[in-house]
User: Fold these one by one.
Assistant:
Number 1:
Amino acid sequence: MDHPDVLAWRDGHIEALDQTALPHQVRTLRIGTVDELVRAITSLAIRGAPVLGAAGALGVALAVRQGSGEGWDDTRLAAEIARIAAARPTAVNLSREVAAVAARIGDGTAAVEGAALAVLESTGATSLRISARGAEYLLQACGDGPLRVHTHCNTGALACLGWGTALGVIRALHVAGALSHVIVDETRPLLQGARLTCWELGQLGIEHQLACDGAAPFLISQGRADAVVVGADRIAANGDVANKIGTYSLALAARQAGIPFVVAAPESTIDAATPSGAAIPIEQRADEEVTAPAAPAGTRALNLAFDITPAELVTAVVTEERLIPGGRPA
Ligand code: MRU
């Protein structure tokens, strides 16, 4: 799958693969307003930390265009841009890239569009570098393979452009002939693992098995994986990692089993301004995502979209620039 299929800027519109429809339908959304973009982000039609960053960058260009057509004043434009940045709170990439592109507004529309397109381009290139570095590290840490890798959620091209972060590392191992197979957690409640990761791995011809989230720690304890590799939505200054709910249990299981727990993420996911995981805002989503279709009417849910893995459980963070052993950025 190519970047332009996942996320693109065409004729002043954002075009994005609708990730809520996959794998059964491959359909593209054409987004021309801030309202439409915020809806696409909150519904998870557009999702995954690096893609959220790129979509937020394009969103600023979209807001500037919409605002000049509709005669918004500076206050209205700033409010619309703030709405994009706040559409999902946990992945720092979204607010970071929105702020970076919004800082160019004084330089004119062309400068804003240029800055947004630069974010789009660099997102894919960055993920390719993470993929290569992560595969090299895993082969050092675990031996020559072929490796069995356990992963969670979706961290491939759909989430990151290019090859992905954790899934990019897995793809690089596959290309090097050093991958045995992948165990994919289904990733409750929105099934990014079952719907999206299995779809991407199938397209790449990479052998994989789908597991229930609740089975993951036991599977790891049974010696069925050589390493756990996941992405991140935000890495605090002390190395605590926010990622899709269910990640923490994998880290605990990996520690207990004595296998590496590796986080693959761009530098832009490291948030020096957030001292520890306790300060990371955790998105809480609608009850119905968990209660439907099985729970009795009126059941309340505790639907946290992300969890925090303490730095001490992280064997290494791999970025496009460096390997951070112990996961604590300097
Ligand atoms: O709620 P989602 O689907 O946006 O959550 C995505 C994840 O948790 C990914 O693991 C994370 O964004 C890293 S993607 C490289």
Note: The longest helix spans residues 109-142.
Number 2:
Amino acid sequence: MPDRRKFVKLSLLTSVALLINKRSNASTSTDSQPVVTKDSPIVISTWDFGAVANAAAWDILKKKGRALDAVEAGVMIPEADPDNHSVGLGGLPDRDGRVTLDACIMDENYRCGSVMCLEHIVHAISVARKVMENTPHVILAGDGALQFALANGFKKENLLTPASEKLWKAWLKRSQYKPEINSENKYQHLPGDIHNHDTIGMLAMDSTGNLSGACTTSGLAYKMHGRVGDSPVIGAGLFVDNEIGAATSTGVGEEVIRIVGSHLVVELMRQGLSPADACRKAVERILKYNPVKSKEVQVGFLAMNKKGEYGAFALQPGFTYAVKSGHEENTYASKSYY
Ligand code: ASP
């Protein structure tokens, strides 16, 4: 299990750069984001914990492995990390104390698989992949997804760790559902801590130039039982078009679903926008339909195009993303509207 403190120290020692987020407004270009051209293979993922996930994906990409295998292996790292309270094992539960996972995966051929509201299985992403590969369907949900997982050899486990249970019990005292804007200190949760969401979305291009993506989360903490966010919804939390590029999202899923966010980002790249500008336009769409709500919630988009250029944009400051390629290993702070 990767030790985050050690990782952070190592990251600093190896000069992992954290670019400081600069306030921007909608009229300014976001092209000061780093741009890497024709860099393949490459993997990018949401949040600072994406760096350890990227490392696992890179192990596959550097051996000329397939992007699909890389993104699955990559996001399995946070899924198995009990200290990560927003993905997989140790994810914060719904308001009834049940950990329910959402995940999806998409390859270079428009093939995709998804699980929604899956309980008791650590690697939701692998179940999603099996849905894609072994069924005629795209989505399995709830008990049907669990039965499918068990029939395919996945082990039933208790995903509610003592730490997550403690946080949930502390939350029960106020029982107020309110997604907070960021989760910068997700590994330093104290009982009743306000940080209560995030997701890993990962996009990779392999040495053949093919793209794939994966997205997995325990969703918004203390949600209603049965709530499904954007993360397992193809087009919302993740979209891959091998001719154009790929995008993924994090933040309050309801806002992303309304605009079918990741699909929108890819279509904007199809129109010629850079990944960062496409992400910015999608954020502006959210702002346009609900400027009041947009002040209170976080949404972040991350995208990569077929040239290996990448970029991000968020509603609020604090969204970070991690990049790994043959010549860089960085964590960046995304630009944001506010
Ligand atoms: N997008 C996730 C959801 O709505 C949560 C997050 O990324 O913070 O379930």
Note: The longest strand covers residues 112-118.
